[in-house]
Design goal:
It comes from Algoriella xinjiangensis. This is DUF4369 domain-containing protein. This protein is α+β, with helices and mostly antiparallel strands and 300 residues long. Among the domains are: 109 residues, Immunoglobulin-like (Sandwich); 72 residues, no CATH class. The protein has 10 helices and 8 strands. α3 packs antiparallel against α4, α4 packs parallel to α6 and α9 runs antiparallel to α10. The chain is globular and about 50 Å long. The two termini are 35 Å apart.
């Protein structure tokens, strides 16, 4: 798992709601056993909140989740992270041993098929990147071709499975977002891996022009899409666009909240640009815990 995590850019993907949503969702039951865990809790990152599951002495846990919107969520166990797909009404049981995680990590219950596929995809992706450590030294088109070929194989195996067609369609879109994420990784690490090569063309990431970067539904559904949108906004910020102007252009409420949360972690009292960002946060957000965090960061 470590190879995959080390090469990915550092994205802020835990997004907290600036105006907490009071809408009630359906219950998801999540339980299981995590053998040889070195922590007392595991966590599900659910777009707008974090849900913790306490482990007993033997690694057992059991609790419920209130969930309104289905989609890709992140499960964090010790230092390992796994993408799950949760639908309100699911009931999942996890059985894993962290000492033999690649051979002993399995879901059962309602929703098991799609989540076992996602776990298998994670391990195969990690194996692919481990076995192709020189992939980021490839020429841009060769890199694209190699990643596309790998994702096509993943998708073909998914089509052959007994997973519902509705999820297969979502995963096809998700794989495209995964692909764009890897293009971002390649772009950000290109100079490091190819110091003697020519600079990447300015229009290297043409895929960004082909997707809607202000899509409320996709932001709530796809983990990879959230990464793409926030990274794009962060790049615009570094290019000199004002945080206030960017926030005024965003139509999606969830993206606005995500960007505001990201801005808080950009604050640095020693950076003159942080003063304008701090004022922008106070202008666009009235959620006191966020404002308190912004105040604390500006006083360090």
């Amino acid at each position: 798992m470590n190879t995959w995590k080390c090469i990915l850019p550092l994205f802020l993907v835990v997004i907290f709601s600036c105006s907490p949503n009071q809408k009630k969702g359906e219950v998801i039951y999540f339980s299981g056993r995590i053998a040889n865990a070195q922590t007392d809790s595991v966590y599900l990152l659910l777009n707008n909140r974090e849900k913790g599951f306490a482990l007993d002495f033997d690694g057992n846990f059991s609790d419920t989740i209130q969930l309104v919107d289905e989609g890709y969520k992140k499960l964090s166990i010790d230092r390992e992270e796994f993408i799950m797909y949760l639908i309100p009404g699911d009931s999942l049981i996890l059985d894993t041993d962290l000492n033999q995680i690649e051979s002993h990590f399995k879901f059962s219950g309602k929703g098991e098929n799609k989540n076992n596929y996602l776990v298998d995809k994670t391990f195969k992706t990690d194996q692919f990147l481990t076995e192709n450590q020189a992939i980021f030294k490839l020429a841009p088109q060769d890199f694209r071709n190699k990643i596309k070929a790998f994702h096509q194989l993943v998708y073909q195996n998914l089509e052959k499975s007994d997973i519902k067609a509705s999820f297969v369609k979502k995963e096809e879109k998700n794989l495209n977002y995964d692909f764009i994420n890897l293009l971002y990784t390649y772009k950000d690490s290109y100079a490091y891996y190819n110091p003697a090569a020519e600079q990447l063309p300015v229009n290297f990431l043409t895929e960004l022009d082909e997707i809607d970067l202000d899509n409320e539904d996709d932001y709530k559904t796809y983990q990879s899409y959230r990464n793409i949108v926030l990274t794009h906004l962060q790049e615009l910020l570094y290019q000199g666009f004002s945080a206030d102007a960017l926030l005024q252009k965003i139509k999606s409420p969830s993206i606005k909240k995500g960007f505001l949360n990201m801005l808080i972690y950009e604050l640095n009292p020693n950076d003159p640009n942080s003063v304008a960002i701090y004022e922008t946060i106070k202008k666009h957000c009235d959620y006191k815990p966020w404002l308190d965090e912004a105040d604390k960061r500006m006083k360090k």
